[in-house]
Amino acid sequence: MKIVNQNERASLRRRVDQGTEDQRKSVQSIIEDVKNDGDQAVLRYTEQFDRVSLPDYKVTTEEFEQAYDSLDGEFVTILEEAAANIRAFHEKQLSTSWFDTSPDGTILGQKITPIDAVGVYVPGGTAAYPSSVFMNVIPAQVAGVERIAMVTPPGSDGSVPAGVLIAAHILGIQDVYKVGGAQAIAALAYGTETVPAVDKITGPGNVYVALAKREVFGDVDIDMIAGPSEIAILADETARANEVAADLLSQAEHDARSSSVLVTTSRELAEGVQLEVQEQLKELPRQDIARQSVEDYGMILLCETWDEAVDTINEIAPEHLEVITEDPFQHLAKIKHAGAIFLGPYSSEPVGDYFAGPNHVLPTNGTARFSSPLNVDDFVKKSSVISYSQQALQQNGDKIARFARLEGLEAHARAVETRKERWK
């Protein structure tokens, strides 16, 4: 992991992977096939890409039972406690409809309505992610979404990881489908004989999933286009090198394209973390992935001042930001752009990934400059409510008509003026 000075570094913001032209065309073709052939196309692509032939792909009651039989009760208890923490956090985000009455009798307000149906994509591949089930499903449930379907790629034996199924079962999600990739997104967006169509799709996936979400956006809503995982750590001389290195590697092991960056004013810490990363890599089961990540996208950035260090963090706008300093709250007000902020030496990033309660579906690739973590508001619609009184229209009708004519919209003006007949 290289140490660089501020004036030596390259750009810290990575471009979103837009995919190749061949990948985009492949995704478009898959989506069209699923639109036209439904389940037949889904099963065909599952066999082609996941190398498993399935007679059907909805998870059965027996598969849920087998999942419980395969894991010990202590793990189930941990999952249940994590789900409770996540639900408690998201319940604090819940908004309610509101109405305001003016003295002239006008009623204005906002009506909040949950989305009818949501599809959740839970990634598979090199790891199992029961936490993704919780983070996508719970805010939707808190928002009041009535129907939630879940898709996740099957393993080579046609199964779904037990932890993923147990997480779904804890939340009462019964509509779980063994399908991944672009074909899963298409099935959720347009429906098949097995999968009813939804109104919004959330959850991260590989480049084909991301491209498919781009393609279907507009026919359905999506949460975001998630890039590889990122962590930035803002640390001073009080931080421990072994802890900082472990936290950097916690994201590096996700994906060879993950980014892990330390920003510090302490050369001693920088050199200590550099050594620790190399030592700890030797002990990681996923060391090949983590090593490539830190070599290609890892960096220790040595700044001269704290203002420079904080400015650098805001430039990165990281998905995860840890602040490990003598007084981490001192810097909080100056941090403008970060998906999730972890303050202090005991707030290691996995605390938020799994257990504390805040959502771990976060903006990546610098999009924390303008977007937020997945939250309850992502699963509701807000309708404006206008009930104008006769008195209000008498007072303001001429103004509204003149405004309409300013824009050259005569019919708009007349629509208001026709009401004058009522009070002649």
Automatic annotation (TrEMBL):
Binds 1 zinc ion per subunit. InterPro entries: Ald_DH/histidinol_DH, Histidinol_DH_CS, Histidinol_DH_monofunct, Hstdl_DH. Substrate binds at S229, Q251, H254, H320, D353, E407, H412. Its EC number is 1.1.1.23. Its cofactor is Zn(2+). Pfam families: Histidinol_dh (PF00815). Residues 1-25 are annotated as: Disordered. Residues 10-25 have a biased composition (Basic and acidic residues). SUPFAM superfamilies: ALDH-like (SSF53720). Gene3D superfamilies: 1.20.5.1300, Nitrogenase molybdenum iron protein domain. GO terms for biological process: L-histidine biosynthetic process. It catalyses: L-histidinol + 2 NAD(+) + H2O = L-histidine + 2 NADH + 3 H(+). NAD(+) binds at Y121, Q183, N206. Zn(2+) binds at Q251, H254, D353, H412. NCBIfam families: hisD. This is Histidinol dehydrogenase. It comes from Halobacillus locisalis.
